[in-house]
Amino acid sequence: MTERTGVSGFQPEREAAGAGGWSAVARFLHRNARFVFPAPAVLVVGFIIVYPVLYTGWMSLQEWFASSLTAPKFIGVDNYQKILTADPRFREAFFRTIWFTVVAVSFETALGVGMALLFNREFWGRGLVRTLSILPMMATPTAISLVFVMMYHPTLGVMNYLVTLLGLPMFTWTYSSKTALYAIALVDVWEWTPLITLIALAGLAALPKEPYESAKIDGATPFQCFYLITLPLLRPTLVVAILFRAIDALKTFDIIFVMTQGGPSNASETINILLFNQAFSYFNMGYASSMAVTLFAIVMGFSLILMKVRRVGW
Amino acid sequence: MVSDPGTKKLLTKIAFYAAVVVVMLPTVFVFYWMITLSLMPQIEAAAYPPIFFNFTVTFKGYVEVFAKHPFLLYTWNSLVVAVGSTLLGLIVGLPAAYSIAQWRQHKLALAILVARIIPGISYLIPWYILFRNLKMVDTYQALILTHLVVGLPITIWVMIGFFEDIPPDLREAALIDGCTDYGAFWRVAVPLVKPGVVATAILAFIFSWNNFLFSVILAGRNTRTLPIAVFNMIGYEEINWGPLAAAATLITLPVIILTLIIQRHIVTGLTFGAVKG
Q: Residue A146: closest CA among chain B residues belongs to which residue?
């Protein structure tokens, strides 16, 4: 049946004379298919994404505790002023978030590219290596954090045994404010280095062969080949990989919340954790919203910088 | 110095495989240790130096997980939410992806990509207030809707790639044969991208299954999902590692199996199609 009305869309006069309202609806659907197809998605996105984002923006200009009975009070940009000038805890969390991201993503990039160079050849077991690499990215972060909580235990954990095997001193891992952030970054590195590896491998596979051949004739060393040919050619791919990692590292929540909840003594409290606690422990919704907007701005800023780097040389 | 080229080649090969084993060891070890701890009695799990191989196998940890916690309920909750949000994501996302691929609606695609950048927590405050006012905290509906925020963009982006791979002639042919756009979508395009739909569905399922942030606030006593249950167990079990490791293993196992099925599509999914794995 639908086919009939569908064809009739091309001959509107005849169809309109013959049938009533239903064919008008069918004709409308037919003509506007390109708007009808995405319409449900647009509605859903509007409800679960656009509306909350606008609401958060509006709420960031209010003072409101969800636990109290008083209505939200409009205070303009006071929340932002507090964030920028009068909240040392936010400032610490801000630098901690950036530092965590820089540390984790640099290690992931260096290790990931190194592993990609190692794996970039035909060898027996390549498929297995690929498969194993995917597992840390997809495994439930909560479960992985839990395993690391057990591994990091200062007296009963296996990590301290392993580091003494390597001749290193024992660490306090997530149990001391000096090392907590790095111990968490290590989990992030464990989880996400494979993503860089796999993206870099895809990039390496697409590189042209000719530059290497002429470099060989010119007598370039393997290191020169890597530094002068591979790295520049791989840069666009790497920027995409780093971009995805940086966006997610700035927003890291699960592993921090499960392992330390921001402690000990705020040592691993990133913006995300601070804002979560402001919102859902103190119900300070207005202030938390302004932090959420700020975090979004930071993530956007990072993304824009990286996209610019993609075009300009480094 | 090794002069014989054959020996040298063999040594390079050995060195190469040694390097591969060393870099893959951490990945394998964490999973190995998770499973091992789940099967050890507490005394051996807390032994120093740790016991890596010759341990007594016991299923006490698994028994305790189900005996002390309503683990089946949590599993059921996780399943309902993940399946619900995946299906809803497909119903809404497939036509949108088709439309974006068909009529080159790049702006729409870009708008959905922004959802990937916005921190999840900035949705959570309004949702919490909204669902609290509607008395919908601790309902499947609230969880399914919110998990869509992760699932829908991924569904749309991965499916755009699959729909773009369909030769445009096929749609033309279908239209000439009297199909509407709806017919061309449902009878021609969707059957052609079935493998893609399966891969996308599994991806969306895993992301919902793993979700912690949204569920920790919006799930309650009746709808608590596995990640939240496992998180709560940390305080409850202290250093009773058998059940903890058993719970971690149980929640990770389905993910690993599903991941193995669609491993070719994981990188594409994680990078929103920017990189073809």
A: B248
- Asked if the Cβ–Cβ distance from A276 to B121 is below 8 Å, we say yes
Q: Which of A52, A66, A132 sits opposite B28 (nearest CB)?
A: A132
Q: How many domains does chain B have?
A: 2
Query: At a CB cut-off of 8 Å and minimum separation 6, what does A274 contact?
Result: A89, A90, A93, A262, A291
Cα–Cα distance, A290 to A58 (Å, whole number): 9
The pair of three-digit structure tokens given for residue A177, joined into one six-digit string? 């404010």
B81 and B21 in a common domain:
no
* Matching residue, tokens 């890291």: A252
Pick the residue of B98, B106, B118, B214 with the most A CBs within 10 A to test the interface with A by mutation. Answer: B118
Name the pTM for this structure. Answer: 0.89
Judged by phi (left if over 0) then psi (alpha if -120 to 50, else beta), residue A266 lies in: left
Phi, psi of A62 (to 5 degrees): -115, 160
Rounded Cα distance, B273 and B195, in Å: 16
Q: Which residue range(s) make up the domain with B49?
A: 5-58
What is the complex's ipTM, to 2 decimals? 0.90
d(CA A268, CA A185): 10
Q: Do A2 and B146 touch (CB under 8 A)?
A: no
Domain A79-311 in CATH 3.30.43.10: no
A62: part of which helix (H) or strand (E)?
Answer: strand A62-63
The domain segmentation of chain A, as residue ranges, is 2-77, 79-311
Handedness of CA A149, A155, A158, A163 (dihedral sign): positive
Q: Strand pairing of A73-74 and A62-63?
A: antiparallel
Cβ separation of B116 and A42 shorter than 8 Å?
no
| Residue range B122-167, pLDDT digits in tens | 899 999 989 988 999 999 999 999 999 999 999 998 999 899 888 8
A83-116 pLDDT per residue, tens: 888 889 999 999 999 999 999 999 999 999 999 9
Contact A158 B145 (CB under 8 A): no
d(CA B5, CA A105): 40
- Residues of chain B contacting A28 with CB distance shorter than 8 Å: none
Amino acid identity of residue B155, one-letter, is T
